[in-house]
Amino acid sequence: MRRSMSIVVTTAALVLSGPVLAAERTVRLAVDGMWCAGCSYIVKKTLAGVPGVTAVDVSMAEKAAVVTFDDAETDVAKLTEVTAGVGFPSRVAD
Asked: Which of 17, 30, 34, 35 has the most beta carbons within 10 angstroms of its beta carbon?
């Protein structure tokens, strides 16, 4: 009985700690194909629309985007997928 209770308590703690383990992350993406203010606007609005994204700063001159996001809700793969989907392939900048 004691072992069963221990397993239940441990499982509950792990399930409930999921959101606690999430972290805010910031990534810099190199974005290909941006050449005008309209391009950077599209990239910014697209990234800002991803659930979990809390901040986006896009620089057309640097051809880059700095994105802050909750890693429990999205990831870098999703961010690069959505930019590519609107015609601006991206990757993690070096």
From this structure: 34
